[in-house]
């Protein structure tokens, strides 16, 4: 017996981990600088770590009260009803919830190309089909309402990403509103703001309170430094609130993740430090890297280096792990996450040496 035909499903390709690369190269993990997964180089909030330790002896219990408390706290933050907050295992969990709530077999979704692979993956898991709108390196991956609407054909879900991964471009609130106004009544516009804290663009969450056709994704993985706990959420229209209990995987958001997220929300100093460092580091990378870079509002910079796979492989041997963007359909690019103020200059120096060696034909 075989699983169903999954040939249309492109697997998600994550950035490589420090331990994995260290084992491959036979070197000390501490000698590597990992800038491949858009993680927070400052780690989690100390308050979140304390909350994990404090509640560790409760992991034999299902996360009912912690889930309720986190939902209420997020609702308070965004000034929405608790029923509009769908806590999930990472923002990708919310993508699945929205797919379950919205998609019938043979419905269509519209996704950016390049973009986060899981938009399409989740749609196909739910027997929907996928269309794409193209974002181009030639105009800096500019996101406009016209670009999206020119490709729109009545899809049930339209995904927008602001800041966009892997380019870092953003889409304005006015453009999101224009798209929502121009699409059909039964089209849900989903705005992925996983990197929203790093951007100066206004969040689309206020649109959710104004209308019934916009939802927003958020996560604790990036600015809050909780990627390993898999905790995120969506803010959905008021009319959708009652669907959560019917699409949510039972107790999907775990006890420690919920408690850590609650503590992280109150540690504004940690978030501010993380955002400030990311903004400094992306400017440093853009100015000092010996390659073309694209303007970014995220905690990463996309660089056009010629052969992304070759550069990423050579950089790895120089002790810097970056993301080859071939899986995004950008084989000429690499994505470089922002590091600390100490490791970012060191990483850029090593990358510049790598680029110079490859240009000269020297084995890096």
Give an account of the 3D structure:
39% of the residues lie in helices and 15% in strands. A 7-stranded mixed sheet has the order 2-8-7-6-5-3-4, sandwiched between helices. A 4-stranded antiparallel sheet has the order 9-10-13-12. The longest helix is centred in the last third of the chain and has 21 residues, at 268-288. It folds into 2 domains: 18-44 and 269-360, Alpha-Beta Complex (Aspartate Aminotransferase, domain 1); 46-266, Type I PLP-dependent aspartate aminotransferase-like (Major domain) (Aspartate Aminotransferase, domain 2, 3-Layer(aba) Sandwich), CATH 3.40.640. With 364 residues, the chain is of the alpha/beta class. The mean pLDDT is 94. It is built from 13 helices and 13 strands. Helix 2 packs antiparallel against helix 10, helix 3 runs parallel beside helix 10 and helix 6 (145-151) runs parallel beside helix 7 (173-182). Pathway: Amino-acid biosynthesis; L-histidine biosynthesis; L-histidine from 5-phospho-alpha-D-ribose 1-diphosphate: step 7/9. The modification N6-(pyridoxal phosphate)lysine is found at residue 222. Its cofactor is pyridoxal 5'-phosphate.
Biggest sheet record: 7 strands, mixed
- Estimate the helix proportion, in percent: 25-40%
Low-confidence stretches: none
Kindly, what is the distance between the CA atoms of the first and last residues, rounded to a whole number of angstroms? 47 Å
Number of domains: 2
Radius of gyration (Å): 20 Å
Derived from helix and strand composition plus strand pairing, the structural class reads: alpha/beta
Secondary-structure arrangement, i.e. CATH architecture of the largest domain: 3-Layer(aba) Sandwich
Strand content: 5-15%
User: What is the residue-mean pLDDT, rounded to a whole number?
Assistant: 94
Determine the number of helices (DSSP H or I, runs of at least 4 residues).
Answer: 13
- Output the helix-strand order: HEHHEHEHEHEHEHEEHHHEEHEEEH
């Amino acid at each position: 017996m075989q699983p169903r035909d999954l040939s249309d499903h492109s697997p998600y390709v994550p950035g490589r981990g420090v331990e994995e690369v260290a084992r491959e190269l036979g070197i000390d993990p501490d000698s590597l600088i990992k800038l491949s997964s858009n993680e927070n180089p400052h780690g989690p909030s100390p308050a979140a770590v304390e909350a994990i330790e404090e509640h560790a002896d409760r992991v034999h219990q299902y996360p009912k009260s912690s889930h309720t408390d986190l939902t209420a706290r997020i609702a308070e933050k965004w000034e929405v009803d608790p029923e509009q907050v769908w806590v999930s295992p990472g923002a990708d969990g919310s993508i699945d919830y929205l797919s379950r709530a919205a998609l019938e077999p043979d419905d269509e979704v519209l996704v950016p190309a390049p973009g986060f692979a899981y938009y399409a993956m989740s749609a196909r898991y739910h027997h929907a089909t996928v269309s794409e709108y193209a974002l181009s390196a030639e105009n800096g991956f500019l996101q406009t309402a016209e670009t999206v609407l020119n490709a729109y054909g009545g899809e049930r879900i339209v995904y927008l990403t602001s800041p966009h991964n892997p380019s870092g471009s953003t889409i304005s609130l006015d453009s999101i509103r224009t798209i929502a106004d121009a699409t059909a009544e039964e089209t849900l516009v989903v705005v992925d703001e996983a990197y929203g804290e790093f951007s100066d663009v206004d969040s689309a969450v206020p649109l959710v309170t104004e209308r019934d056709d916009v939802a927003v994704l958020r996560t604790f993985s990036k600015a809050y430094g909780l990627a390993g706990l898999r905790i995120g959420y969506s803010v959905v229209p008021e009319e959708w609130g009652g669907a959560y209990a019917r699409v949510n995987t039972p107790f999907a958001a775990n006890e420690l993740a919920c408690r850590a997220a609650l503590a992280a929300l109150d540690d504004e100093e940690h978030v501010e430090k993380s955002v400030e460092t990311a903004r400094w580091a992306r400017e440093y990378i853009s100015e000092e890297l010996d390659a073309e870079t694209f303007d970014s509002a995220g905690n990463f910079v996309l660089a056009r280096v010629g052969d992304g796979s070759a550069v990423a492989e050579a950089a790895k041997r120089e002790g810097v792990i970056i993301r080859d963007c071939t899986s995004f359909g950008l084989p000429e690019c690499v994505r470089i996450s922002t590091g600390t103020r100490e490791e970012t200059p060191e990483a850029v120096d090593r990358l510049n040496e790598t680029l110079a060696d490859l240009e000269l034909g020297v084995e890096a």
